[in-house]
Write the structure tokens for this entry.
Amino acid sequence: MAREGKVSEDKKGGDVRETKDKITKALIIDSSGLFHIRNAYAITEMASMGYRLVTTSLVVNEVKDTRSQALLGILNMEVIDIDADHIKQVKLENSGLSDTDASIVALALDLASQGIEVAVVTDDVGLIKALRRRIRGIRIITVNVK
């Protein structure tokens, strides 16, 4: 299951928000969302509407380009670690998913099981299909790539 990481800086030296407040809405950002988003305004607007911006440590580890690393810092996302066994379980049920994509599904499942309204920013078709199969009514925000 997901557990909140007690981290003040990620491995790249960027700030990571630590919070223990009750989450009611969560916007999970996938790596592809970070790579392809053109304007962070829509994401910051959702944050201002009560969505907590979250991602997994596997997503953070995947982000190598300067622009996406900067976006991680600008959005001030909370990084949540996912148990490796939970990732393996998701991958058994969705064999085409990478560990990172499986961590997004596992996080979404965990948050949804707590009654949290979940939305995911991604353009990964396999991830979208896995999320829709597993979580009824999940909101998917796709990023159009030109």
Notes: The first helix runs from residue 31 to 36. The chain is about 45% helix and 20% strand.
